[in-house]
Amino acid sequence: MKEDESAGGRARSLRGLLLARELDGARRARGYTTRTLAEAMSMSAAMLNRVMTGRRSPTPLEVGGLCALLEIPAGRRPGLYRWAATAGQVDWIATDESAVPLADVEAVTGGATWFAAASVPPPLRTPDYAAALGAAPGAPADARYYLHPAVLEHPLVPEGVLREQAAHLLDHLDAVRLVPPTVPAEPGFRVLTAEHFPPIVHFEHHGVDVVLERPELTARHVAFLAEAAVASLDRGQTRDALEARADRLPRG
Asked: CA-to-CA distance for 74 and 66, rounded, in angstroms?
């Protein structure tokens, strides 16, 4: 499908959005205006604009031409061809053949909001907490976090490490809020937002990354997160609860 029949200005799919953002970023980096690049491609400016916003999937020939003009490295080009060929597909589930490009998804979003009930989200983990789970700490992220108290009662994490983790969360009170134990301990997930695109939901299930983009699939997660935010403790209450939890735990 060469033309998008949907109304409005948003990308057809997350794959289409990833392709468009990378191409448009390369266009800007190379100093092309939409008009001058369209002329070089023998396309109308309106048609190229639809490509650069993800509303139209470029053909393989067009992808090749854009990659050449924009000097996109050879190593990145197969991914762009793949996104163009699959722009009509929605949702992403990791398989042996195709991992979810989380770094690319994160790069086109403007932050994330997490809900966690089983373990502390990777960006907030101390090295010892992560090691106790057999994982690596995540990179710092621009995000908001709603945490169920159960994240500080993980059976695989020694009590001294849990105390250290509680103290670490106190250093992030601008972003962290605890929710009451009465909030259901739903499996953890995060909602990512991108300009001119519906909310995106990411979660991990038994080691498999899942990214959902269809509103009918993400609506429940978005609604649950909104309810958790309303029920959450304020900054002072979160601080008091974390301090009380740390005080009850032995030092490591």
From this structure: 12
Nearest 5°: phi and psi at 218? -90, -15
CB 37 within 8 A of CB 25: no
Contacts of 25 by beta carbon, 8 Å cutoff, 6+ apart? none
Q: Taking a C-beta distance cutoff of 8 angstroms, is the pair 138, 123 a contact?
A: yes
- CA 41 vs. chain centroid, Å, equals 33
Q: Say how many residues make up the chain.
A: 252
SS3 173: coil
Q: Are 91 and 212 in contact (CB under 8 A)?
A: yes
One-letter amino acid identity for 175?
Answer: A
Tokens 């996104």 locate to: 83
The SS3 assignment for 91 reads: coil
pLDDT, one tens digit per residue, over 176-219 is 999 999 999 989 999 999 988 999 999 988 888 999 999 999 99
In whole angstroms, what is the distance from residue 25 CA to residue 45 CA?
17
pLDDT score for 196 = 86
Please give the Cα distance from 249 to 184 (Å, whole number).
Answer: 24
Query: Up-side HSE of residue 145: CA atoms within 13 Å toward CB?
Result: 25
Beta partners for residue 199, in sequence order: none
Q: Tokens for 140? A: 């710092």
The structure tokens 């800007």 sit at: 28
